[in-house]
Amino acid sequence: MVSGKLVHINAGNGECSYASNSTLQRRILQEAKPVLEDAIKKLFNNIGDFPKSSCFNMADLGCSSGPNTLFTLSNIIKIVQVLCDEKSCKMPEFQAYLNDLPDNDFNTIFKSIPSFYGDLKDEANCFISGVPGSFYERRLFPSKSLHLVHSSYSLHWLSQAPEKIENNNSIYITRTSPPQVFEAYMKQFDKDFSRFLQLRSDEIVSGGLMVLTFVGRSIPDPYGSLSAFLELLSKSLVDLIHEGIIEQAKLDSFNFPLYAPYNEEVEKIVQMEGSFDVDTIKFFKVNWDERDNINDDDVCFDAYSSGKHIARTMRAISEQMLVSHFQFGDSIVDYLFERYAYHLTCHLLVQKGNFFNIVISLTNKK
């Protein structure tokens, strides 16, 4: 495996699975929903007789697995239904493509589809397909076949970690990282996101839209809350080095394949690539522990409970990647995330953490 290349989330429905530890991502979907609603309203106006056309084709890129996957699809269908009721027009049929990496747990998704169809009843005809593949590497759909592309909490993941990072002493960008570390991450995101826009422009009809949500930064300073979040995981790995469980060389060769772009970086890349117009770009924060809704940014309601919860969420996302690189056994993985929960708790006792999120709506110009 190439160091820091995303593998897949934890499959199934067990205690450490993504399906059981993705309430943060559900919260993100709910926060971004108003932008999705506005985008679909605009889509109705952009495309002639739509939705009188026979089928509404959409894709959810980085769909993952678990309850959130079909929750997104259900939201889109409900939004269209409201618009059709307002316009006194017939509901279109829906073709929904669910995309993620080939090792994604598509089987769990497919097993839940019959109950999803049952919930729809006669309200809509929806046809669901799984589409395995990286959305950075190649086109995934026929030319000009999609009306809407949706992606939530996937595009901050890079196709791979930046190469040739040296003397960083961490798995991500820290306050003491050399400038070339930040530059390498920024260039990798620029390359990946530009390629993503190019490929999707070929797949989306003229006037079709994308709604994308991902972790970002509100300031140019590359060190943000995501950096602090990953620095605590790096500390946990260092604990394992001090105890002789892993070697320093293993940590030195690992870089996390994730980047939180500054909002102006995102707009600049869209402008430079040239295929899309930016309709809407909005920002919102969600606490590391999305259950903690206390407004005081400096006080965590229960740091111990939050530390454990956040560590489980991170384990569901990153365990397979860490195991692949460090060759951990089950007991070591358990211990690593116990250490991570401890470091999170210590941090939260001093200051609450949050993620700055970007949601952007784009119209295809081609």
Write the layout of secondary structure elements.
Blueprint (H helix, E strand, L loop, with lengths): L22 H24 L8 E7 L5 H21 L5 E8 L5 H15 L5 E7 L13 E7 L26 H25 E12 L9 H18 L5 H5 L10 H11 L2 E12 L15 H24 L3 H21 L3 E11 L2
Parallel strand pairs: 1-2, 1-4, 2-3, 4-5
Antiparallel strand pairs: 5-7, 6-7
Helix pairs in contact: 1-2, 2-3, 4-7, 5-9, 8-9
Question: Can you offer a commentary on this structure?
Answer:
- The protein is α/β, with parallel strands linked by helices.
- It has one domain: 3-Layer(aba) Sandwich (Rossmann fold).
- 45% of the residues lie in helices and 17% in strands.
- The protein has nine helices and seven strands, in the order αβαβαββαβαααβααβ.
- The protein has a seven-stranded mixed β-sheet with strand order 3-2-1-4-5-7-6, sandwiched between helices.
- It is globular and about 65 Å long.
- The mean pLDDT is 90.
Number of strands: 7
**Roughly what fraction of the amino acids lie in strands?**
15-25%
**Quaternary organisation:** single chain
Helix content: 40-55%
- Counting DSSP H or I runs of 4 or more residues, the number of helices is 9
The H-and-E topology, N to C, reads as HEHEHEEHEHHHEHHE
Strand order of the largest sheet: 3-2-1-4-5-7-6
Radius of gyration: 21 Å
CATH topology: Rossmann fold
Instruction: Assign an overall shape.
Output: globular
Low-confidence stretches: none
Q: Look at the helices and sheets and give the structural class.
A: alpha/beta
**CATH level-two architecture:** 3-Layer(aba) Sandwich
Protein name: Benzoate carboxyl methyltransferase
InterPro entries: MeTrfase_7, MeTrfase_capping, SAM-dependent_MTases_sf
Family: Belongs to the methyltransferase superfamily. Type-7 methyltransferase family.
Organism: Solanum tuberosum (Potato)
